[in-house]
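INFO batch 0412 | record 1 of 1 | parsing
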Amino acid sequence: MRTVQRKAKEVAERDQMLVRLALEMIERDGFHNLTLGRLADAAGYSKGTIYNHFTCREDLLIELSTESARRQLRYYQAVADLAWGGVPALYALMLAYMRHAEVAPVLFECSITARTDAVCEAASETRLKRRELVEAQMAQVVGSVVERAVTEGPYDNPRLTPAVAVDALRSYILGYAAMHLLSRRFLWAEKDSLRDRLQVLASMVEGLGWPRLEAEELTSIQEVVDEIVGAVDSP
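INFO prediction complete | emitting tokens
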């Protein structure tokens, strides 16, 4: 391997190591206690080395949100690759997003905070462009599933285009995920409430124009999603 290639590989590996370490520190101490100086101490590097990777704490936050997007992309691609209909796949994408918020709450919260103008204005263009690339790939996968769902349909809502309906679903699951993380006292925070959660999701999908799936099929889809998320997140 050429020296330049080897160095680039080492930088990329160190970058990912720092992201994993930062995630561990946030999980333990909270994001408000994370500084690049503390990250340098924990990693055993100089502050200069850390600043070569992240120009500021906001830069690190953007990278954490990108890592969140990378995981979601792997979930979504796995869902899209399964040999099932477009409508079940559409349900699976939404359930995968919810499951992501449950199993990786710190990444999910980072992804929300990293959307604010203050963070984006402080972060480097390089990090922002990396996130945009991953999000564009996610949008492409979601778009292919939506197209399949509309083709196999039926989609029946003369007042909303499928794109607007998907945006409404995205808003719903974002609201669910945020509420779930804010308080374990939230109505659907317990495992016993899974059936109710799936029924409300089915009602949302049906109200927007897609076919409603029944409890047994929804439970099966949830089980597949759980397996996908577990496989992607396993070491």
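INFO post-check: The mean pLDDT is 87.
INFO record closed
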